[in-house]
Specification:
- About 70% of the residues lie in helices and about 0% in strands.
- The radius of gyration is 29 Å and the shape is rod-shaped.
- It has about 160 residues and is mainly α.
- The protein has a single domain, classed as FlgN-like (Methane Monooxygenase Hydroxylase, Chain G, domain 1), CATH 1.20.58.
């Protein structure tokens, strides 16, 4: 990370958020195609990016506070307007970051729905494999024979 100024943090955040959007789009493609192997690597990458975003956001908030602005999202507009020569860049970056954050939130919501759909499908498939009645719970007996046929106890003549 570079020098802790709100503008430098904002530049890095916007870059990482753009990367995160790409990862979320790839995740969506893997979910639609049910490519589970690809999802594992993306989950690790997504976690690392979110961690970086959290650290950069905290860094930006600290830099805002040191610059005399509220150390929170609300302080960004006032800070960006007072940036002098960098005001246009700061405002554009801040707006882009907010737009990308909204897009990432929506992609994450849709991906969550796709994950739930996959889980429901898997649960349905597992349920179809399970016996449906209590009597069928012991489908095969200890000897490997089907218990659906009544067992013969033999005939005793007396």
């Amino acid at each position: 990370m570079s020098t802790a100024t709100p503008l430098n943090s904002l530049r890095e955040e916007e870059h990482i958020m753009t990367t995160l959007l790409g990862v979320l789009k790839q995740e969506q493609q893997y979910l639609v195609a049910a490519e589970i192997d690809g999802l594992t690597a993306l989950t690790t990458k997504k976690s690392a990016l979110v961690t970086q975003m959290t650290l950069l956001s905290a860094q930006r908030h600290r830099a805002l506070g040191k610059a005399g602005y509220p150390a929170e999202e609300a302080g960004m507009d006032a800070w960006a307007a007072a940036c002098g020569a960098d005001a246009a860049e700061a405002t554009a970056l801040w707006q882009a970051l907010q737009q990308h954050a909204r897009a990432a939130k929506e992609l994450n919501r849709i991906n969550g729905m796709l994950i739930n759909k996959q889980m429901n499908h898997t649960q349905g498939a597992l349920q179809a494999l399970r016996p449906q009645t209590a009597a069928a719970n012991n489908f095969y007996g200890p000897g490997g024979l089907s218990t659906s046929l009544p067992r013969s106890r033999g005939f005793l003549a007396g």
